[in-house]
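Entry for the shared binder. Reason: the reviewer on the internal report wants the predicted structure included alongside the sequence.
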Amino acid sequence: MTFLSIRAVRDYRQLSDNECMGALGVGDEKGLNEIVRRYQRPLMGYLTRIVNDVERARDLTQETFIRIFRYREAYRTTARFATWLYHIARNVARDELRARRRRIIVAAGNESAEQETVAEPDVLRRLADREVVVRALEQLSARDRALIMLRDVDGLSYDEVAEKVGLPVGTVKSGLSRARRRFRECFGEVA
């Protein structure tokens, strides 16, 4: 007679980001799967706005998650996970912009180098502006950040946002109004 051992099944959707990273740190790749599920869409949107290329942003999103896996042991729960994630994504995007700049210079010669030198400050300014927005978003509560991201970044309707967060539409509208006001205040502080 044999007995089957039954392990408790974890619902990773109920775990915090830190708990998912903790699971990944001990070899449970389902923690990474949950992180990807949570952040793939907003991260891809963030990277698309930086590199202005949807297909390349898709690759960079994957590269970001690969780096998360590679550096999982370096993650410390004293920092917010989203801050660490977007820091890695920003570095991946910077690497892409530098490589793109080198490819353009090599392909077109000195004439392109002069044009690229003029365009570079604009790219760096846009990247810096995005970093200020991310820092302001990080200062919001998780609920406020979710409302703004779902409605203003992902473009969902109020009904879709209400369904995603499990709140009535009226609560979403009033909560979003307060979240936007808080965001403006935070943006003013970090800008």
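Summary line for the report: Residues 67 and 88 are 8 Å apart (CA to CA).
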